[in-house]
Input
Amino acid sequence: MKQTFTLIATAITLTILSCAKYENGATDEPVTVTLQSTVTTGSSVSKGSSVSLSLGTDASKTVNWSSKPETGLTISASGNAANVMFNTSGTYTITGTLGNSSGSSTFTVKDTVVALPSSYKDLAYAAGEELVLTAKKLGDSAAGGGIQIGGYTSQKYPCGSWTKFTQAVSNNTLTVNFNGLLESLNPCSTGTAVVYVGGGGITAMAAGATYQLVINFKGQTYTGSIAKSAAGKFTITWPYTSGVKISPLSL
Output
């Protein structure tokens, strides 16, 4: 019985979201997972950007993720999804495995910003749109580990929609600019879903350091801070309960 699986991929400083679906029933035979995305295998992304991958649509499943090479990137996994931040230029092959199913996607990471893809049109934020962001540690080192902030829209959009943003780390300030959404002219399927919006990160943060956090979204500037203790604990000061939400504030 032939089976087809699709893999979601999103890339940022530009963020491209694709959809996934399962077809037919289960099988005991090995199943190959193939990439269906505007960020196709072999595509280029810019250093400092992220790629979001997911296998299937069941978040209760636990997918094992690996990379070749193993260094130069950070993989943050949850359920059937993973977010990969590329810290160093090079070529990386990311593999997801779930039971007897597995598949790989290859990305070339460059120092320069990659051009926007065509075949998209501007998409307005839905009424009441907010960003729901999650903070995660990068690495385990108290001295050199960093932090990543990424998440999703609160509203749903057509499959294949993506968000575009830029980030910069300068003078102990992390600035993230969310620059709107784009809708694919060739959506991957019918239906709607929340959109992975990426975010920003500090790949290496010294113990005892404090960074300002600035997020620009829908014409408003949100400001807070990220502090790291000598023991490697992060404390985020973020006074907002709407617009742009971040949790947890202590990790």
